[in-house]
């Protein structure tokens, strides 16, 4: 359990220092061996997040250890774990370029091979639902059955993976791609990968 908790703390700090979030926005969680979830606490500055200060909750969102208050986005994280048994880490962030696509409600095309490898294809856009709501949690998982990332309309980005570190890597790939696509649009538009690459990669 300690390793998962340390991974949540380390991933949260890396997410912050890499500029994928500002302030106390965003959140990170990891599934522990006993099925509980270690999650970043609500409204705590990233440099102040510690292993003992994580919120430990069950899949129903009940605190099972400690007194830390879990992220206001806990429903979204927990729905990912309930829906996808293979998911071991969830990262939610607000990277600038990916968030531009979320606000414009445009998917990020899989025009680079690594997006197919790490995301599974285009990054879709989930319909707008209120932040922190069960409705947002339900909407997000609709787009993750064959994808590692989903944009949330007028909000930001959520990524899942086998671990918190894995989910963060996917977030970095999405943000890098969003920046490239935004620049390509200024140069005349994105040229898609050959269809056989998309299908068979």
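Q: What amino acid sequence fits the structure above?
A:
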């Amino acid at each position: 359990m300690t390793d998962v908790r340390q991974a949540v703390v380390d991933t949260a700090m890396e997410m912050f220092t890499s500029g994928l979030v500002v302030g106390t926005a965003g959140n990170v969680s990891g599934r522990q061996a006993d099925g509980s979830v270690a999650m970043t606490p609500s409204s705590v500055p990233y440099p102040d997040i510690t292993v003992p200060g994580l919120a430990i909750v069950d899949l129903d969102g009940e605190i099972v250890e400690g007194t830390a208050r879990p992220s206001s986005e806990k429903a979204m994280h927990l729905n990912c774990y309930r829906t996808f048994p293979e998911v071991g880490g969830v990262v939610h962030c607000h990277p600038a370029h990916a968030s531009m696509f979320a606000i414009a409600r445009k998917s990020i095309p899989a025009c680079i091979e690594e997006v197919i490898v790490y995301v599974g294809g285009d990054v879709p856009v989930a319909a707008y639902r209120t932040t922190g709501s069960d409705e947002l949690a339900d909407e997000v998982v609709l787009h993750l059955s064959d994808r590692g990332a989903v944009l949330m309309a007028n909000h930001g980005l959520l990524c899942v993976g086998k671990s918190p570190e894995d989910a963060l890597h996917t977030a970095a790939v999405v943000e890098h791609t969003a920046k490239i696509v935004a620049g390509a649009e200024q140069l005349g538009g994105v040229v898609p990968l050959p269809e056989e690459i998309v299908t068979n990669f």
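Q: And what stands out in the fold?
A: DSSP finds seven helices and eight strands in the chain.
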